[in-house]
Amino acid sequence: MELLSIVIPCYNEQETLDDFYKEIRKVRNSLASIGCCLEVIFIDDGSRDKTLDKMKQLAKENSWIKYLSFTKNFGKEAAIYAGLRHGSGNFVGLMDVDLQDPPSLIPKMLEILKSGEYDCVATRRVNRKGEPAMRSFFARAFYKLMKRVSDVEIVDGARDFRLMSRPYVDSVLSLKEYNRFSKGLFSWVGYKTKWLEYENVERARGETKWSFFKLLLYSIDGIVAFSTAPVRFASCLGLLFCGLAFVFLFVIFFRALIFGDPVAGWPSLVCVILLLSGTQLFCLGLLGEYLSKTYMEVKKRPIYLCRETNLDDTESIINERTSSVKKGEINENKKL
Ligand code: UDP
Ligand code: MG
Predict the structure, then answer these.
(1) Which atom of ligand 1 is nearest to the CA of 203?
(2) CA distance 15 to 138
(3) Ligand 2 ion: residues within 5 Å (CB)
C-alpha cells in the first residue's frame, strides 16, 4: 500500500486544528478506498496556546497522526523543513492548517502525481479575494520584481500547498541552507510541476500569523536568497555617479575658466552630499543583507530544535536516509 505523508506547520492554531482534523479524516477515508494510506505530521512551531495539547490528543486517538514540537518559534520555513525530513511516504504533501488549502483537492492531486508524468503537483490561487488591497499590491509587486531579478521562477499566487514525489522531496532536503525560502527552493530543484488553480479561500478561524512587516522581511529574504541583482544594482549606481561626477567636473572647470566663479553654491553642494551619502548608505545596507545571510549560514546553527515528538519509528527511517545530514541538526527527546 502506498503512503502519503502530509506535513502541516502550525503556530498558535488551537482554533483551527479540530476543523482541519474533520476534513483530513474524510480525505483519509476516500484515499483508503483507492489503496493509499495517509499519515499526518503536525509540526508545532513553538505555539504558546493549546496547539500542542490538541495535537497530542489527536495523536493519542489516531495512530496515523504524528506530531513534532519545536523548542520555540523557528518560523514556517523551519517547520516545512522538519516536516519534509520526517515524511517517509512515497508521496509527501504540504499544506496549511487553516483550511485555506482545500483538503478536498488532495485525491485529484495524488491521481496526477501517481500517473508518473509529474514530480510535483502545486497550487496557486487565481485571485486574492478577502485580502487587504495593500497586501495584494505589494505581493504582486514582489512577484514581478522576483521575475526580473532572479533565475528561479516564482509563480504569482503560488501557495505552499503541494504534493511531491519521493525524489523531489529528497532533492529539496538536499538543500541544507539555513535561510530557507521554500517557494524558491521548490522551483530551484527543477523536475516537472503541474499547477492547479483555485479561488482564494479565507481562513476558517483564527488570524493570519504574517504581519505586513513580517511579509516584507520574508520577501527581502527571498530576493537575497535567489538573486544577486541588488548588489549588481549597487555597483551600477556607483558607476553612474562616478560618470556624473566627471561630467560635472568638466562643466565646472570650463565654466570657471570662461566665466569665472561668481557663486559659491553651497545649497547645491549640500544636496549632492546628501544624495551621495544616502546612496552610499543604501548600497552598504544591500551589501550588509548578503553579509548577514552569509554570517548566519557559516554559523551552521540547526534549522530547528525539537522538544517533543511521537515520530520515533519514522525518525529511524529518516536517519538511514539522511545520515550524512544528521549531525547536530536535531535534538529529539521522545517523551511519548
Ligand atoms: N505558521 C507557522 N509558523 C509561523 C507562522 C505560521 O508554522 O511562524 C503556519 C500557520 O500555523 C499556518 C501556516 O503556517 O498553518 C500559514 O500561516 P497563515 O495562515 O498565518 O499565513 P497566510 O495564509 O495568512 O499567508
Ligand atoms: Mg492562512
Answers:
(1) 19
(2) 29
(3) 96, 98, 100, 203
User: Residues near 170 by Cβ (< 8 Å), separated by ≥ 6?
Assistant: 321
* pLDDT score at 232: 81
CA separation for the pair 133, 156 (Å, rounded): 16
Joined together, the cell numbers standing for residue 262 give 561668481
The series of mean pLDDT values per 10 residues for the chain, 336 residues long, is: 92 92 92 89 94 93 93 93 92 93 91 91 83 81 84 84 95 92 91 89 78 84 85 82 80 80 71 82 84 88 90 48 42 44
Is the separation of the CB atoms in 227 and 154 below 8 Å? no
What per-residue confidence (pLDDT) applies to 316?
39
**Contact call for residues 318 and 291 (beta carbons, < 8 A):** no
Ligand 2 centroid to Cα of residue 101, in Å, is 8
SS (H, E, C) 161-198: EEEEEHHHHHHHHCCCCCCCCHHHHHHHCCCCEEEEEE
> Ligand 1, from 10, 11, 71: best to mutate by most atoms within 8 Å of Cβ?
11
Q: How far apart are CA 112 and CA 124, in angstroms?
A: 16
Continuous segment of H or E residues that includes residue 66: strand 65-70
119: phi then psi, degrees, rounded to nearest 5? -100, -15
The reported pTM is 0.81
Q: Taking Cα atoms as reference points, which of 185, 157, 153 lies closest to residue 84?
A: 185
User: Using CA atoms in the order 316, 321, 327, 331, what is the torsion angle rounded to 10 degrees?
Assistant: -30
Question: What cell does 275 get?
Answer: 544624495
Closest residue by Cα to residue 158 from 114, 222, 107, 221:
222
pLDDT at residue 326, as a whole number = 41
Q: Looking at residue 82, what is its pLDDT?
A: 94
Q: What is the pLDDT of residue 255?
A: 79
* DSSP secondary structure letters along 246-296: HHHHHHHHHHHHHH------HHHHHHHHHHHHHHHHHHHHHHHHHHHHHHH
Query: What are the residues whose beta carbons fall under 8 Å from the beta carbon of 294, sequence distance 6 or more?
Result: none
